[in-house]
Description:
This protein is of the alpha/beta class. The protein contains 13 helices and 23 strands. The protein has helices at residues 56-62, 84-90, 110-122, 136-146, 161-171, 196-213, 232-238, 285-290, 337-351, 376-388, 414-423, 436-440, 456-464, and strands spanning 4-10, 16-17, 33-39, 78-79, 94-95, 99-104, 127-131, 153-157, 175-179, 216-222, 241-246, 253-261, 269-275, 278-281, 300-307, 310-322, 330-333, 358-364, 396-398, 401-402, 408-409, 428-432, 449-453. The strands form five sheets. It has a nine-stranded mixed beta sheet, sandwiched between helices. A hairpin with a 5-residue loop joins strand 1 and strand 2 (16-17). The longest helix has 18 residues, at 196-213. The chain is globular. The structure holds thymidine-5'-diphosphate and magnesium ion. Magnesium ion binds next to helix 3.
Amino acid sequence: xxxxxxxxxxxxxxxxxxxxxxxxxxxxxxxxxxxxxxxxxxxxxxxxxxxxxxxxxxxxxxxxxxxxxxxxxxxxxxxxxxxxxxxxxxxxxxxxxxxxxxxxxxxxxxxxxxxxxxxxxxxxxxxxxxxxxxxxxxxxxxxxxxxxxxxxxxxxxxxxxxxxxxxxxxxxxxxxxxxxxxxxxxxxxxxxxxxxxxxxxxxxxxxxxxxxxxxxxxxxxxxxxxxxxxxxxxxxxxxxxxxxxxxxxxxxxxxxxxxxxxxxxxxxxxxxxxxxxxxxxxxxxxxxxxxxxxxxxxxxxxxxxxxxxxxxxxxxxxxxxxxxxxxxxxxxxxxxxxxxxxxxxxxxxxxxxxxxxxxxxxxxxxxxxxxxxxxxxxxxxxxxxxxxxxxxxxxxxxxxxxxxxxxxxxxxxxxxxxxxxxxxxxxxxxxxxxxxxxxxxxxxxxxxxxxxxxxxxxxxxxxxx
Length: 465
Ligand code: TYD
Ligand code: MG
């Protein structure tokens, strides 16, 4: 039996020490020493590796090398979860033999989503739900609330990696959910569950299990205050797919986004509504995002965004207020704050509005986070509308990127945005002049009136006209 010891390695420079240190003696970084397991005697059957360079040929002879042609593609082994929004983010479904990480704030709905996924998968194969956070009766209570048929879900209340690994090996589930990775521990390590080394060790073990014996393993991970999944980037590098669950806990909409996906695109997003009976996929995203929108109110503008392949209309709200401090506040929810600072600077300079002594507040209604620059023009219109205390043209959708000299620049997916605006019954659409050619090819039953603009002066004339 191999003797197990531990050592400490700096995650930045690799410097090695025998005990934990707050500061790495090698590179001087703080809090980078991570405990690592060392197996002192080589396990049987791996002797070839100890031969160094001379022993390489022996090791290679034993290795399992194949030509790329001989490898069978795993594409056929993708199975849909049956939850359309979840499948969309995954790129069509879960891929056999993969490790998926689902991150998000506590209470956002990770356990709910995965318990629902277990029920759906349970109809096709075995689903194993490993709960380290909740007792079986708590899981049962949740399942009852969700109206889930529990007969096909196997439940294991355990935190020890060895027992979990043995169970997975014996049961061979099609889907295993580990809720959560931060509660699991490997006995060989002395550190507490949730530490970087434990998280990495357990995730590494699960990764080997998924790759060797098939089935999908989904890890639930809590997000730390600074936004990274605890047991930071190591975990994101190890897994095949990283999904983040976001949204406002008070609001009912939840957004699932892929930040890494080895088997699909990362820009797709899934929208769910949290009801008393669990998460329900939202098909008509624009309708959900615009529900309850006030009409004819200053500072409210509808922007046409595209997330992945899906067009979404969202309401952007702005509010300006005289600043009480020397430096104006720029608060924003759902849009990058730096982008707002840039856009207010452009407006201040080009339109001479005097925004430098006003606080500005921006909000994307519905909890969606927009990364696209195509929302720039809507932000500018919303700020101008609240500045003039005048509502914008009714029934109008706005999109376009704003440059530093106040010019409106073309954006991609013009057709999707315009068609979505028409589908949602909007009468007009303000868009960049540079998109004129792209609109010529659009064929749809119902199109809004297209109003092309080339700079923010023109845009604000049209939007309030
Ligand atoms: P949960 O899945 O436990 O979150 P996480 O695992 O990410 O910590 O979700 C808990 C929240 O969801 C809780 O605030 C209550 C709410 N909820 C509903 O609104 N409806 C439901 O059917 C369920 C099960 C939970
Ligand atoms: Mg949970």
